[in-house]
Amino acid sequence: MSKSTVRAAAVQIAPDLTSRSGTLTRVLNAIAEAAGKGADLIVFPETFVPWYPYFSFVLPPMQQGAEHLRLYEEAMVVPSPESEAVAKAAKTHGVVIVLGINERDHGSLYNTQLIYDADGTLALKRRKITPTYHERMIWGQGDGAGLKVVDTKVGRLGALACWEHYNPLARYALMTQHEEIHAAQFPGSLVGPIFGEQIEVTMRHHALESACFVVNATGWLTEEQIASIHDDPKLQKGLRDGCMTCIISPEGRHVVPPLTEGEGILIADLDMRLVTKRKRMMDSVGHYARPELLHLVHDARPAQAVRRIEEPTPQPVLTPELEAEDV
């Protein structure tokens, strides 16, 4: 464990729904602000750059085309000048950054989480393994290679997005790699108050079960932004509330009060000794496990759309005369 105390920041701000560059500017400003407050780790909401596809929640498929194509145009490519700008910010401020993006890979979009170490290296690029309900019209699927915990300046760090936390085996795959801090991301401003309540339950449960800290960031939409997504007041209700930016200890407690509305940056100091304190009582992948009864099979190979089998290169046929010449 690299540090006995880690100062974590969970960012709850609104994106710029008009441009990738506008949202990226907000990201870089928030990094500078959190780093100025001493943060070692900064977590942003799900697919924050350029924005979460809120339109997919309130528009029927036949009406999504224009907004979906606009998301293609504004989505991030990795690597790109935008991803390099985030890497530079991580290195400049000496902070670990977890950023959610819409990643464009040629003709597909993915819900992608980027983890930058404090030296600016991209420690992990992973894709959400199963988009949820309406999101399946928007994103492709990730693979088991992204279910990975990485060593960073702040310790062993894992990440999942939104309802991946409802997949106990996905969470267990990270737990078996002994994550010390778990970065979680949700869209925020979605579904209504019940969503925030469900997020809180899920984050506290994972912290307890994994015996790790959880740093969760949800997004925020202004009333003007909500109106720009849909003009029907009834449907606008589905674009409010659902925020639960929080930082949870391995004992399942809020380290600081959560942020459930408005913009802000939650800051908390994580006493990393609590990880061992909790695991002494209950290590779900160690002394509390029963692998001879129950165990996980994790296919960590990257998914491949094609496996090429090339023609073998013809080898010259050696005649007795050629063999004699070689000698």
UniProtKB/TrEMBL annotation:
**GO molecular function (one):** nitrilase activity
A Pfam family annotated for this chain is: CN_hydrolase
CN hydrolase domain sequence ranges: 6-272
Fetch the CDD domains from UniProt.
nitrilases_CHs (cd07564)
Q: Which PROSITE patterns match?
A: CN_HYDROLASE (PS50263), NITRIL_CHT_2 (PS00921), PIPLC_X_DOMAIN (PS50007)
**InterPro entries attached to this UniProt entry:** C-N_Hydrolase (IPR003010), C-N_Hydrolase_sf (IPR036526), Nitrilase (IPR023919), Nitrilase/CN_hydratase_CS (IPR000132), Nitrilases_CHs (IPR044149)
Q: Which family does it belong to?
A: Belongs to the carbon-nitrogen hydrolase superfamily. Nitrilase family.
The cross-references to PANTHER family, in alphabetical order and at most eight, read: CN HYDROLASE DOMAIN-CONTAINING PROTEIN (PTHR46044:SF1), NITRILASE (PTHR46044)
User: Which protein are we looking at?
Assistant: Nit6803 family nitriliase
Please name the source species: Tritonibacter litoralis
